[in-house]
Amino acid sequence: MLYQILKRWYQLRNIDVSQCDLVVPLGYGLLTRSSLPDAELKVLKMAKQIAKKHQVPIAWASSNYFWDNCEGQENRLKAHLLGAKFNPIIGDGITNSITEAYSIQTKIIDKKIKSDTIVLVADWAHARSAKNIWSKIWPEAKITVISIDANWHQSSPVFFQRSRSRWLAVNLVRHIALKILGMRIKKIRHPLKNTHSR
């Protein structure tokens, strides 16, 4: 009950995307069995639909601190889901949402990709802090967030992604921390449990 009340209060309302230069499906790492979590599958599916409709590129960056080569595993799984018709722009490995935004920005600028209007696809609890981060890093771009509702799994190596209540709680804390401390929180990364080299 409390979760639903918080969701109604906190979530961003999705709007129709009328203009788009670039789509960014935000990353959620891998599960410990080396598969993509539900949030990752859903943001990729939505990003693919938006990119196809507007004929624009997709860009992402994957986590690099779970275990050896987790970044490469995540990139391959995402690319496979997108299919051969897409040629994603892939940033360097990341440790949190702030380093994710910087990594993608660097790659987009290097490749001279048009980025006046950027659509982020995120799970709903992540949406507000993600928009806050991207708006600070890329103030000249119009940032729109489309959110999905994801399920969380006990096999996630990220402790806070093991239940929806934990994920909501950490996103509320991150949002408050961003308001108070700004980008100084970029060195923080989610605590991991039960990971090992693959």
Any key phrases for this structure?
198 residues; alpha/beta; Rossmann fold; three-stranded parallel beta sheet; 6 helices
The CATH topology label is Rossmann fold
Report the strand count: 5
Shape: globular
Give the helix proportion (percent range): 40-55%
Task: Kindly name the structural category.
Answer: alpha/beta
Order of SSEs, N→C?
HEHEHEHEHEH
Strands ordered across the widest β-sheet: 1-4-5
Please indicate the percent range of residues in DSSP E strands (runs of 2 or more). Answer: 5-15%
Q: Can you characterise this structure?
A:
With 198 residues, the chain is α/β, with parallel strands linked by helices. It has one domain (18-187): Rossmann fold. It is 43% helix and 11% strand. The chain contains six helices and five strands, in the order H-E-H-E-H-E-H-E-H-E-H. The protein has helices spanning 2-10, 38-54, 70-82, 97-110, 124-137, 164-181, and strands at 22-25, 59-60, 89-90, 117-123, 142-148. The strands form two sheets. The protein has a three-stranded parallel sheet with strand order 1-4-5, with helices on both faces. The longest helix is centred in the last third of the chain and has 18 residues, at 164-181.
